[in-house]
Amino acid sequence: MSAPLYHLRNQFPALNQPDLVYLDNAATTQKPERVLSAMNRFYREQNANVHRGAHRLSDLATRTFEGARDKVQSFINAPAREEVIFTRGTTESMNLLAQSLGSHLLQPGDEILIDTWAHHACIVPWQQMAMRTGAKLIPIPLTGDGDLDLDAYQALLGPKTRVVSLTQVSNALGKVAPLEVMLPEARAAGAITIVDGAQAVAHLEIDVQTLGCDFYAFSGHKCYGPTGIGVLWGRRELLEQMPPYQYGGEMIQQVSFEGSQFNRLPYKFEAGTPAIAEAIGLGEALAFIDELDRKALQAHETALMERVKAGMAALPGVEAIAGRGHNLGALSFRVEGEHHQDIGILLDQAGVAVRCGHHCCQPLMQALGLKGSCRVSFAAYNSLEEVDAFLSALKEITEFLDD
Ligand SMILES: Cc1ncc(COP(=O)(O)O)c(C=O)c1O
Questions:
Q1: 285 Cα–ligand 1 center, Å
Q2: How close is the Cα of 318 to the center of ligand 1, in Å?
Q3: What dihedral do alpha carbons 76, 82, 87, 93 form, nearest 10°?
Q4: Measured from the CB, is residue 219 less than 6 Å from ligand 1?
Q5: Does the pLDDT at position 2 exceed 70?
Q6: Is 122 one of the catalytic residues?
Q7: What is the four-CA torsion angle of 389, 392, 397, 402, rounded to 10 degrees?
Q8: pLDDT per position as a tens digit, 103-152
Q9: Residues 56, 58: Cα–Cα separation, whole Å
Q10: Which of 13, 51, 232, 337 is deepest in the core (most CB within 10 A)?
Q11: 89 in contact with ligand 1, CB cutoff 6 A
Q12: The domain that contains 185 carries what CATH number?
């Protein structure tokens, strides 16, 4: 581990246990002490509901909660804090978009383009809205290497394309989408663009203005924050036009039995008491990432990925999936003749936690001709020694199964 990242592991209490090589970070990352402490402090010293109390504690809770929104705004370089909406995670962000934007925008025959890497959280909400409105959900196909087929994408873009939904980093393959090419093309076709940043935020610097998308979504728990909190950022002019997604307290300005007036942004999309402690935890997690040496982090994650790829290439019967070229944070693999679940169980018995299955990407698995795969995924605190421990466990398992 490089020097600037050396002390990281000590900050993660859950890593301090024997026989645990945690390589399932794309599912969820561990949480640093400062995130746990911030949430604990909120409940012990500041707990009150936000935006509504006339008392000191409520004022403090509101300021801490809204401070977390400011942290998100600066972390993704959003133009305005009102454009940052707290959700339960990427899944809720996508449901909000499909239901609110979809019902406002889609007409029969309209087209929604979505990449084949897409997580079910992106596919299913748009699929359901397409069924309701008569729009069509069209997948952007893959090349033989598992990359997005840019020629096919360009051919699919057209006057009927209303929405383009893209995964920034594939959770199953670790592939990174060429957003710098794809987003301007979508915009030129007049489409609204959505980026699923769930697997990007822990690894890449995010600047929604440079990206040039209309919406950006991510989950707190995949970037060292708590579960139950996520973000939807959107361009103000679009958010202003969209109807609310849920109704209740917080999201209204005026209510009578005859009708209601909705609140201003971002509260229009935040019905009910929000996940206050979780938002505060997320703000702390983003501050943790901000303080990392980004260059060192990138070099370290590249070293981990290169080591695991070289190690897998040397193991007979082990095949990295879509492992040619660049993989960021995650790599899928299979063992010839063996079920991915069996490999996962045997690795677990050796103290190595990986993910096995379809990774909530069944259409991707179908496109690759797979029932599922095993996946290793890294966070900043993983070490080369852990990669070696994984590789030696995998070697023992394949030799044992080969006997
Ligand atoms: C790329 C991607 N998108 C969306 C999601 C859904 O995230 P969540 O379950 O936190 O809502 C995940 C989770 O694995 C993901 O990896």
A1: 17
A2: 27
A3: -70
A4: yes
A5: no
A6: no
A7: 170
A8: 999 999 999 999 999 999 999 999 999 999 999 999 999 999 999 999 99
A9: 6
A10: 232
A11: yes
A12: 3.40.640.10
